[in-house]
Amino acid sequence: MLKSCCVVFCTANKLTNYELKFYILSNKHKEPERRTKWLQAIRREDDQGKLWNPRTKHVYVCSWHFITFMYIILHFCQ
Ligand SMILES: [Zn+2]
């Protein structure tokens, strides 16, 4: 499965952006709090306009967004 960034409007994927790293979203059962913070930072909505909660395990964030969101989480989500 091709790794691609889950952020809206981000087109980064492992095929065309091989220099980037792709970080997998935290597991729902192992790290629920960390996962929620990340989903809040990603700010993607589902069909009903609620906070996106992907069912697949294969959700990745590219290193551009990883750095941005890590900053947001560390400074604004404590
Ligand atoms: Zn991205």
TrEMBL record:
InterPro entries: THAP_Znf (IPR006612). The chain crosses the membrane at residues 58-77. It comes from the Eukaryota. Keywords: DNA-binding, Membrane, Metal-binding, Transmembrane, Transmembrane helix, Zinc, Zinc-finger. Residues 1-78 form the THAP-type domain. One of its GO terms (molecular function) is DNA binding. This is THAP-type domain-containing protein.
